[in-house]
Amino acid sequence: MSVLVSVPRRVTSVAFVAVLLAGGSVACGGGAKSSSAVANPHTVTPAAAVAKAGKNAEDITSLHYRISGTVPGKDRLEADASMSTQPLAMSMNMKTTAAADQGGNGRMKIRFVDKVMYVGGSAVRPEKLNGKSWLRVAPAVWGRGGVDNQSYGILPSQLQASPIAQSTLLTGSKDLRLIGTETVDGAKTTHYKGTVDSKSLIRGSLDQFMMLEVSDPLTMDVWIDGDGRTEQFRMRAEHNDSMVGTGDGPLDLTVTFLDVNQPVTIKAPPAKDTTPLAAEAPKG
User: Fold this and answer.
1) CB–CB of 169/193 below 8 Å?
2) How would DSSP label each residue in 243-277?
3) Cα(160)–Cα(60) distance, integer angstroms
């Protein structure tokens, strides 16, 4: 049985990242696209189309997705990930230009399995790995609410939420409009656009909004296929200056759903390939 190291939440994210990374950064899995013809977008209101896609998101049990764009303090970010909801698990490969600028190549592998986070890749300081391939740290939680998530600053806050939940944020928009029909990664879709703000969101969605660490309003685009399912969404907003450690720069992330409800297996790395991260007391 492997022994997990429990890192107290009081260990600051900044301190954790500083001792862990040689530079800073993450990819995972994919497949088939729906080729369903898009229904005439003029026969359904934008609000009804977006609401249907939000409802259909509740049926997603596994997902392979791609992320690209910018997050405050991380510059350019690219990630490829797979997740399951039962049990809740996630595997991601990520690359950020901010990490590369710090001397590494900005590549990192992250897995969340059974409330344990595993971190590997060339962005991790070799001396922290003790000859192993992965660090492990617990407790770690991904894909829950903002209060429950814990990745010790390794993942940007904007990537700690489940993309399934994020895809439904536009259901709170009061100014939805039809943009047109477009093809996304081989799928025929209808493109809608709108804005949301913290005052118009219900409690669950408000939690997702707060995790983005942005100021009102959030501009959001969503591309919906002929079956009424989200194929892609894009979120844009200015960073919230009141958020501690948010960093400079805007949020501009595009998330593309590559495979939905296809078999996903996410396992912890072999125990022989992992080493616990020793907790360090915060300085200052």
Assistant:
1) no
2) STT--SS-EEEEEEEEEES------PPPGGGEEEP
3) 18
Q: What is the CA radius of gyration of the chain?
A: 19
DSSP at 21: B
Q: What angle do CA 108, 105, 152 make, to 5 degrees?
A: 35
Instruction: Look at residue 31 and tell me whether its pLDDT is greater than 90.
Output: no
Residue ranges and CATH numbers for the domains of the chain are 13-262 (2.50.20.20)
Q: What is the pTM of this model?
A: 0.86
Which residues partner with 83 through β-bridges?
63, 90
**Average pLDDT of the chain?**
84
DSSP letter for each residue of 85-125: ETTEEEEEEEEEHHHHHTTS--EEEEEEETTEEEEESTTB-
Specify the pLDDT at position 73.
Answer: 74
242, with CB counted inside 10 A (0-12, 13-18, 19+), is exposed
Mean pLDDT over 247-255 rounds to 86
Distances in whole angstroms, Cα of residue 258 to Cα of each of 39, 123, 186: 21, 26, 10
Angstrom distance (rounded) from CA 253 to CA 158 = 9
Neighbours of 127 (CB within 10 A): 9
Query: Are the C-beta atoms of 36 and 224 separated by less than 8 Å?
Result: no
CB atoms within 10 A of CB 204: 11
The residue type at 33 = K
